[in-house]
Design a protein that fits this description.
- There is one protein chain.
- The chain is an alpha/beta fold.
- The protein is built from 25 helices and 34 strands.
- A 7-stranded parallel β-sheet has the order 14-15-13-16-17-12-18, sandwiched between helices. Strands 19-29-28-20-27-26 form a 6-stranded parallel β-sheet, sandwiched between helices.
């Protein structure tokens, strides 16, 4: 009976596809394995098998799968259930989830290779572009399209390739690109003829005239612990042998030529699982001990528990004790953090306790390293504890017992683009429930939804109200910068009080953190004469000035522009900076305190994993006096010597057009404030604002989370916002604004037919054009008890009917469920 397989391909396609299974591959395949399939006329993709069956599809003729890549599954059954839940809940396709979940090295891509035809004779003159491509191919007869584009400096080569194909000057060769290569090293062993002790003695006598070669052979026998029985012989690398013997490559080659030694490739991992010295766990304080037992009690009746502990209350120490409990039961732990910056600090703490049982997984790691972690997780030697950012929820687990979501309120847990636009906290709760595991959410400033669930009994709630070692919460000084600016008493963005406190901290060899939630030098430049502001040609935003690079950058599409010397609108040369970002603050601070060592931590300075680690470790070790940063510095980092924190502009966070702006501003400022004051000294926070009378400012100063919660809940209940209602944003994008407007109006009207008042819009979002695509947004507010699957079906039905209209063929529609 002929067999077939259903597969997922890493493309945004809703359905799975069926391929036929050649008899020769039947034995070597099982669900969860990767296979190579041809998709379309000339493309190959790595697909994942979800089912093996004997039912041929009726709608199309099946193709054979080309190759099986795995001898055992790389996708476990429970992982696949999790993928299906993600695709359903977040209104995207299984292909989207697959693309996001697997490291790139496990998704082999097809690249079009162009091959030169040496027999080609031109019957007519070639165009300059065609001639250029043939010249490049005659030098290197086999290149992929991307290589040719790079080498020729020409864009959009496909028409040229097509015409050369028609003239038979070239041919196309489709080949699988394998981007993951295992790391190997060259190792050395005796050739088979010399495994015998007698033959080895003869060889030593023959080498008497070649003392250098003899020295290498002696060193090999010593390093490998060689014996005639061939037992317990240690592996020896070529590099190790040459270093230990002090001999050269050419001397070693002589031994290989004489067939005494031979080399072979050995696959070594990229993961550094060296046995590290571990230390016993710290004893918990009485308050921590109480919280620890309360959490364990909660877990007896609830699957999810919220630990609401003030900043510096020692939540990490409680996590370590919980992990220890779970490991004793033979289970695994997933420890999620919102930001890569945090993993560098916490990795050290966890590694000191758990040593090589800890694995770290995040996007700043090289892809090959992530492939190896994934593969290790499928073996018996898997990690007991995985520490990682949101993508870690996709890793294979075989015995998950606990998921910890640290700083659960953080917006970085929500994936924005591309799909799946999942929230790692909610996904982690679902993942844990599929394994029968528990979830602990920890934070000093809970998201209002999580706190609502905890107060209403859906989650357990444990509160930790005192800081570890009786450290006091920081004292917050309010500064009215509007009044100071009117009296011209501000120095750049700094009030006299803030400058005085920075000066005092520096004199006492203490550290300072300055927080401004905007990177760059100036949010915009403006012509003083006519008010012209440079804007991005692809997006509806003004450009940010970056002084170090001396260029204007769009923070939405990344496009860069030269800084104009004169205003293109009126010819005026007075171009002034408006507003300030972290780069400008760094510049000003260096001028005011030239003797201070200053560092900046934002997206521009932390492009690599090592940059993060360097900035944090320098600050920890006291090599930096003042750290300036965006929201990155608010995320649970612990520094012992920080006595002053400056929040330079509280208003920019509160005046944001979003129903969560007050919640966000409270969380950010409370978290930043929490960085101040450690070890027997109360810290100081200088909060600069133009609206000191705002009730939110008072709540931050008194750390009154309960009041914020109460006010926000009343407002959200009234206006039908989460947690009382579920939100779905529908985004429509198109290159032509008029077509987009028609499509958005039509879609909203059709959605209203079935869902009535629940539909709001369409409206223009604050940034209504990004990367040359115009954007419209429809908001759907659904009751919590409504069936999401019915909503999904209706949305799909409306979207299909819209796309079938000839006018809207190139329209893009996507959904953001539970937006942040």
């Amino acid at each position: 009976m002929k067999k077939f397989v259903d597969v997922i391909v890493p493309l945004p396609i809703a359905s799975q596809y069926t391929y036929s299974l050649p008899e020769s591959l039947e034995e070597s395949i099982q669900p969860g394995c990767r296979v190579i399939v041809s998709f379309g006329p000339k493309r190959f993709h790595t697909a994942i098998v979800t089912k093996i069956h004997e039912t041929a599809p009726e709608a199309y003729e099946t193709k054979d799968i080309s190759e099986v890549l795995d001898s055992r599954p790389v996708l476990l059954a429970r992982q696949f259930s999790f993928w299906k839940w993600l695709a359903d809940y977040y209104l995207c396709t299984l292909g989207d989830v697959y693309k996001a979940a697997l490291p790139s090295g496990m998704k082999l891509e097809s690249e079009t290779l162009v091959e030169y035809n040496p027999d080609f004779v031109a019957s007519e003159p070639l165009s300059p572009r065609e001639q250029r491509i043939l010249d490049l191919l005659s030098a290197d007869p086999e290149q992929c399209v991307t290589q040719l584009e790079k080498a020729s400096g020409m864009k959009n080569l496909l028409p040229v390739i097509k015409s050369l194909l028609e003239k038979e000057a070239i041919c196309i060769k489709e080949e699988i690109k394998r981007s993951y290569k295992p790391r190997t090293e060259v190792r050395v062993r005796l050739t088979e003829a010399l495994q015998n002790e007698h033959h080895l003695h003869i060889q030593f006598d023959l080498l008497a005239r070649a003392p250098k070669q003899q020295a290498i052979l002696m060193k090999y026998l010593e390093l490998s612990g060689w014996n005639a029985q061939g037992k317990d012989i240690r592996e020896v690398s070529k590099k190790q042998l040459l270093e230990a013997s002090g001999q050269s490559q050419s001397v070693f080659k002589g031994l290989v030529d004489k067939q005494i030694l031979e080399t072979y490739l050995y696959e070594i991992g990229r993961l550094t699982d060296k046995e590290t010295e571990t230390v016993p766990i710290h004893t918990l304080s009485s308050a921590q001990q109480r919280a620890f037992y309360d959490i364990l009690t909660c877990f007896q009746t609830k699957n999810v528990c919220l630990l609401h502990g003030v900043t510096a209350s020692g939540k990490t120490e409680i996590y370590i004790h919980l992990i220890e409990e779970v490991l004793k039961a033979g289970k695994q732990v997933l420890y999620l953090l919102p930001e890569i910056a945090l993993t560098t600090q916490i990795t050290e703490r966890l590694r000191r306790v758990f040593g090589a049982r800890l694995g770290v997984y995040h996007s700043k790691f090289p892809d090959a390293e992530r492939v190896e972690i994934w593969q290790k997780q499928l073996t018996e030697q898997d990690y007991d504890v995985i520490l990682g950012v949101r993508s870690s929820v996709f890793l294979p687990f075989r015995r998950l017992g606990l998921v910890i979501v640290d700083e659960e309120h953080e917006t970085s847990y929500k994936q924005q683009d591309p799909a799946p636009r999942y929230h790692a906290r909610n996904a982690a709760i679902m993942l844990a429930s599929m394994y029968g595991a528990k979830t602990l959410l920890g934070t000093a400033t809970p998201s209002l939804e999580s706190y609502f669930h905890a107060r209403n009994g859906k989650y357990g709630l444990v509160e930790l109200t005192e800081r570890h070692q009786q450290i006091q919460l920081p004292h917050i000084e309010l500064v009215d910068i509007k009044e100071l600016a009117r009296k011209k008493r501000m120095t750049a963005q700094f009030s006299p009080l803030l400058l005085q406190k920075i000066r005092e901290a520096l004199e006492q060899k203490e550290q300072v953190i300055l927080f401004q939630n905007r990177r760059g030098f100036a949010p915009m430049i403006e012509c003083r004469t006519c008010g012209w502001v440079p804007r991005c040609k692809n997006c509806d935003v003004s450009l940010t000035y970056h002084k170090v690079l001396h260029q204007l950058t769009c923070h939405y599409c990344g496009y860069t522009y030269a800084v104009p010397t004169a205003c293109p609108a009126c010819g005026g040369v007075e171009l002034v900076n408006r507003g300030f970002g972290t780069e400008k603050i760094e510049d000003d601070i260096k001028q005011i305190f030239p003797e201070a060592r200053v560092a900046r931590m934002d997206l521009d300075t932390t492009r690599t994993r090592t940059a993060y680690e360097r900035i944090i470790s320098d600050f920890e070790e006291g090599k930096t006096d003042i750290l300036i940063g965006t929201q990155m510095i608010s995320k649970g980092l612990d520094f012992d010597r920080v006595s002053v924190v400056g929040i330079l502009n509280a208003d920019s966070m509160m005046n944001y057009p979003d129903f969560r702006s007050y919640e966000r501003a409270f969380q950010l400022m409370a978290q930043v404030a929490g960085r101040a004051g450690r070890k027997n000294k109360q810290g100081l926070v200088v909060l600069q604002t133009k609206s000191p009378e705002n009730p939110l400012i008072h709540q931050i100063m008194t750390n009154d989370y309960a009041r914020l919660y109460q006010e926000q809940m009343e407002e959200r209940s009234l206006f039908k916002y989460p947690p009382f209602y579920r939100l779905i944003y529908v985004y429509l994008k198109h290159r032509k604004e008029d077509i987009l407007t028609q499509a958005a109006d039509l879609m909203a009207a059709r959605l209203r037919q079935g869902m009535g008042e629940r539909i709001l819009g369409p409206d223009k979002p604050p940034v209504a054009r990004i990367q040359s695509l115009f954007i419209r947004k429809i908001v759907i507010k659904i009751e919590q008890e409504a069936s999401l699957s019915k909503v999904r079906c209706y949305l799909n039905q409306v979207q299909r009917s819209l796309i079938e209209d000839e006018r809207f063929r190139s329209l893009m529609v996507y959904y953001d469920v539970d937006p942040t």
